[in-house]
Task: structure prediction
Amino acid sequence: MAGNVVNFVLIAAVLITVEADIGLLTNDLQIRKDLESVLIDLLNTLVRRDDVTCFVIICDAVYLNVFEGDLFRRTFPVPLVMIVVEENEDLLSPNYDTLEALRQATREGCNLYTIIMANGFQVTRLLKFGDKYRILDTRAKYIILHDIRLFHSSLHYIWKRIVNVVFLKYHSNIISSPKNKPWFDLLTVPFPNPIKGVFISRRVDTWSGKFHYKRDLFADKTGNLNGEVLNVVYFDHFPSVVVTKFNGTNNVGGVEIEILNTLANKMNFVPKLYQPINSHIHKWGERDSNGSFSGLLGEVVSGKADVALGNLQYTPYHLELSDLSNPYTAQCWTFLTPEALTDNSWKTLILPFNLYMWIAVLLVLLVTGLIFYGLANYYINLLNYKNLKKEKNYNYAKPVGLYLFGEITNSILYTYGMLLVVSLPKLPTGWSIRLLTGWYWLYCILLVVSYRASMTAILANPEPRVTIDTLKELVNSKIACGGWGTQTKRFFEGSLDEMGQKIAERFENVDNPETAADKIAKGVFAYYDSSDFLKYLSVKRKTNKNLNNSTSIEVDQYNEKTGERNLHIMSDCVVNIPISIGFHKNTPLKPLADIYIRRIIEVGLVEKWLNDAMSKIRSKDTAEKKVIALINLKKLYCAFVALAIGYILSFICLLGEYIQWNFIVKRDPNFDKYAVDIYYMNKNKKTSIL
Result:
């Protein structure tokens, strides 16, 4: 498009059919021309500084003629969105065309809004709507026609959020003289100073054909807050905010407090810390039946608090109600579960190898036993054939050692004996069997050494604990699950994972973490929170027991007496959630605060503060104390289990031999109790000679 014809790019335009009263538009031609001129100077100044990427014009029929072709011909080409509203349009619920144009402006990243409308009530309703639903970018620059109705007390909260604004207040020429020209006062909001009762604007500049002071109309107001007091609401949640009692007063520390102090130093404000009413009950807060919010979020939503500290998760739910800074860390959210739901001491005998290793050992045992049996029978048959051929009888010396593997049962038993490092009574004949025996002995030595080393480590260390470390194990355990707030339950209900859905079915809302810890110790509950807080909760519970124990073994002995279980943090994370600092909705403080928080993270301060907070907890954790190598009766349950299995199998074999002797051997017609040796000799002749 040729620059001589049109000097702007039109992104989107909403042209609503209006029947403008020509008399109203031309009633005061001078006002329109002056307004047009000051807008041209403002837009050119901003564009010249590269501060405008796209701008939005919102006007009505009264001021439509201000935006004729002359304004666009005299301004630098910048993409724009132009919206013309009807006189009777309710901008608290705008029509579809207006709403789509506003959304288009947001998508295109427009950072300048020019609102020139005669009806101040329409402007106030537009600002309320844009702030509530985030249709308007409150951190953009605004040029608004001055109207006393914009400064009503019900709209004061808007001017805590839209601070980059210039109000154009027109002053007519009272004395008819060429030297006394009409002028515009360029006013802005008194940020960071709070609005107390009455809105008193602050003059930035004046315009009478040109700018008088030539100041920066949209200077950054957040870089230096001039020692202004900001209300900071906090909720005690380790390690973000740590509250300790000292002489009846609260000492507040933690990672987020350190970040807040850094921001206060760099942005020059004074934080005023306070807790919401009944914070121990409402905690972060939820929506009440009347639509308001309680707890931490209630203070932010109502605008009472400028900053919120309390381990706020970077989630769509919190983003809808407040502004969140760039995440300063990410936390693993998982479950605190009970340990030792079942005792597995009896399995110590099989713990050195996993399931697949045991399967491999058994398969090798069976295969090797069968191979020994096959080779032994091959040599026996070979020697029988040679003796028959030479002597034509069975009177020959039995092959040395082949009887060890001549029967399948003996072959498996002797192969198993070698696996237990029991030497053979005789070395079998046949080079193939001898070579196989040698290599099988090497295999047995390596296997037995590995097993013994693993068994020694298991017996020397504390007995293995049965823990829940995955969602699948938690679901299979059938214990109840819970956490704080209905939002947590909705998170699991919205899970695409089948395990998450099952967790949601038995998820309970728990307001008191200490109560949850007591239920976990009884082995009937699992509590959901961040892993750092769960570590703090478990250590705090141990500390409150006042056991004065020096080792984890004594703690376990106490648990055995009371029937309580140790607390275990599930190793698998359900989700890793970013954590942020909260601000009230559409705050102007967020952009600069994000820059400082990013620098704090880059230099490693957040990691240091987090380690400082967690080191105190780790030092109190008795589970991390030196482990004593101690063998007790409980660890050797497996030996008694193995002995019991041997007794049972021996008794079964004895019973089988008794039955076989009384009901098979004695009933044989050839059996003679006075010549048992002759009976077995005759019986053996019917079978192959070993």
Summary: The CA atoms of residues 139 and 609 lie 31 Å apart. The chain has a mean pLDDT of 83.
